[in-house]
Amino acid sequence: MNISIFLVLLICAVSLVEAKEHDYKRVIMAGTGDVGELFVRFLLLSGESCLIVQSLVPGGGGEILGEKDICSIDGKKIADDYAAVDFKVGAFKAGKLVFEVGVTPLQPIGEIVMSCEIIFSNGLADHLSCKEKDFVRKEFCADFER
């Protein structure tokens, strides 16, 4: 009996997961696509330093299964540890969600362009992992050539 009560509470808790309300008039970049078995949407809002990554219910008409604000790059906070961060391009490539990101460190050395990938864990976005384009394999960088 205790197990059945626990399962009912767990199901209720999972169904209560709701995404935050967003002002979609402020969206400056967005995309929807597949990441492995997941159906994913990303949003970048004007005036916000975080990238929003949402896992969607397949066939659910845009119903959000889970949402994560990505506010750091390899552990460094976008809002505090950089002078500027510019998400230049976002794309779904080979079952991954990838970005070209320009970062300007707090020390004035200019912009560094990085190739980044959203890392997923248990069906939800977990973090952004980046490498400077000079150190990234040529095939990966070709995804961003215009």
How would you explain this protein's 3D organization?
The structure is a single chain. It is globular and about 45 Å long. The chain has 146 residues and is mostly beta strands. The protein has a four-stranded antiparallel β-sheet, with no helix packed on it. A four-stranded antiparallel β-sheet has the order 7-8-9-10, with no helix packed on it. A two-stranded antiparallel sheet has the order 5-6. The longest helix is centred in the N-terminal third of the chain and has 14 residues, at 2-15. It contains two helices and ten strands. The chain has helices at 2-15, 138-142, and strands spanning 27-35, 38-45, 51-56, 64-70, 72-73, 76-77, 82-93, 96-105, 112-121, 124-132. The protein has one domain. Helix content is 13%, strand content 51%.
Model regions low in confidence, pLDDT < 50 over at least 5 residues: 1-17, 136-141
Structural class label:
mainly beta
Mean pLDDT: 83
The counted number of beta strands is 10
The number of helices is 2
> What would you call the shape?
globular
How would you spell out the order of helices and strands?
A: HEEEEEEEEEEH
How many discrete domains?
Answer: 1
Distance from N terminus to C terminus (CA atoms, Å) equals: 60 Å
In which range does the helix fraction lie?
Answer: 10-25%
* Strand portion: over 45%
Tell me about the largest β-sheet.
4 strands, antiparallel
**Which sequence of strands runs across the widest sheet?**
1-2-3-4
Rg, alpha carbons:
17 Å
